[in-house]
């Protein structure tokens, strides 16, 4: 089966990337994208080295190699790309830079499936390499973002609007520091000796741990996930007998660890007293869930809030 679209807050969201390419091609031919109204589509799926670019455009004076990216990750007013780490997307940007020549242009168009979005950011929480690459090339490539307004049946694009990319704010976000959540699955009831806390009983289920790192956030998370390491934090003892299902980074220069922890606690089925909170006033930074927290819409909303809406 192929997933074509979903609905978020009763708004249809197209998920099929190949259809996005066809739609952009049609919008260009219909002169509905203002900054591309002087171009015609010459070819699709243009090969270069070991990459393929979605569209080759032309006008009287030059050619324009255009890569189209479907953007389905967004909050209330801000959209981000990618929604998962993507070496391929980074490679496309670097190859586009090579393609650029005095007689041609090259660029990337991010197509956001929500008409209410006002700003676009690279998803630095998810893929810092892509985000830094995009920022480093934004003066060399044509980087644009548009939002599409669909009818309720997803059969007609009613409107196309360009979205602002605030590059100076993007630059300030490209630091490897912030807060994070680890979603951990314990497959059976188990007792674990946790440093000075002593022996703790962990019930079968899921645990969410909140932490922070003022620098080298990605290295901190990678260290937590390693099995063979010197134990330094409380969480190191639990990970020895459990599996990290997902790590969720929040790049920020604000001290949000305790605030984030309290929001997770409000959704949880319990907590482990004093776990990971020896340097603050919180009762704990480790929270128990009987079921996978990703099945709880409110948990997803917390992630969206801290990753996107609070920028």
Description:
The structure is a single chain. The chain is built from eight helices and 18 strands. The protein is an alpha+beta fold and 311 residues long. The strands form five sheets. A six-stranded mixed sheet has the order 3-4-5-8-10-11. 35% of the residues are buried.
| Separation, N- and C-terminal Cα atoms | 36 Å
Strand content: 35-45%
From N to C, what is the helix and strand string?
Answer: EEHEEEEEHEEHEEHEEEEHHEHEEH
Q: How many DSSP H or I helices?
A: 8
Shape: elongated
Helix amount: 25-40%
Please summarize the sheet with the most strands: 6 strands, mixed
| Spatial extent as radius of gyration | 22 Å
- Strand sequence of the main sheet, in spatial order? 3-4-5-8-10-11
Runs in which pLDDT lies below 50 for 5 or more consecutive residues are none
Average pLDDT value?
94
Total number of β-strand segments?
18
Alpha-beta classification: alpha+beta
Secondary-structure topology with pairs:
Elements: E1 5-8, E2 11-14, H1 17-29, E3 40-48, E4 51-58, E5 63-71, E6 73-74, E7 78-81, H2 87-99, E8 104-112, E9 119-122, H3 128-136, E10 142-150, E11 157-162, H4 167-172, E12 178-186, E13 190-194, E14 198-202, E15 205-213, H5 217-225, H6 234-239, E16 243-251, H7 257-267, E17 270-271, E18 286-289, H8 297-309
Compact description:
This protein is of the alpha+beta class and 311 residues long.
């Amino acid at each position: 089966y192929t997933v074509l679209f979903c609905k978020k807050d009763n708004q249809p969201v197209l998920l099929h990337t190949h259809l996005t390419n066809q739609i952009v091609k049609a919008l260009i031919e219909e002169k509905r994208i203002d900054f591309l109204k002087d171009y015609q589509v010459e070819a699709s799926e243009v090969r270069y080295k070991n990459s393929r670019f979605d569209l080759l455009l032309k006008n009287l004076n030059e050619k324009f190699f255009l890569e189209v990216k479907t953007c389905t990750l967004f909050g209330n007013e801000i959209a981000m790309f990618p929604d998962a780490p993507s070496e391929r997307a980074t490679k496309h940007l670097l190859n586009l830079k090579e393609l650029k020549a005095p007689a041609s242009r090259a660029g990337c168009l991010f197509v956001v499936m929500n008409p209410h979005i006002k700003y676009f950011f690279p998803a630095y929480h998810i893929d810092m390499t892509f985000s830094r690459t995009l920022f480093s090339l934004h003066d060399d490539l044509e980087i644009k973002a548009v939002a599409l307004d669909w009818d309720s049946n997803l059969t007609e694009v009613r409107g196309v609007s360009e979205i602002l990319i605030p590059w100076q704010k993007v630059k300030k976000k490209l630091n490897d520091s912030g807060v994070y959540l680890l979603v951990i699955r314990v497959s059976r009831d188990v007792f674990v000796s946790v440093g000075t806390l002593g022996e703790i009983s962990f019930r079968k289920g899921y645990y969410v741990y909140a932490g922070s790192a003022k620098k080298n956030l990605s290295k901190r998370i990678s260290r937590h996930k390693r099995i063979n390491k010197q134990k330094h934090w409380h969480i190191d003892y639990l990970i020895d007998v459990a599996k990290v299902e997902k790590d969720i980074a929040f790049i920020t220069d604000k001290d949000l660890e305790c605030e984030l922890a309290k929001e997770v606690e409000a959704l949880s089925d319990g907590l482990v007293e004093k776990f990971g909170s020896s340097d603050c006033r919180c009762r704990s930074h480790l929270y128990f869930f009987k079921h996978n927290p990703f099945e709880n819409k409110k948990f997803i909303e917390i992630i969206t809030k801290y990753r996107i809406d609070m920028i």
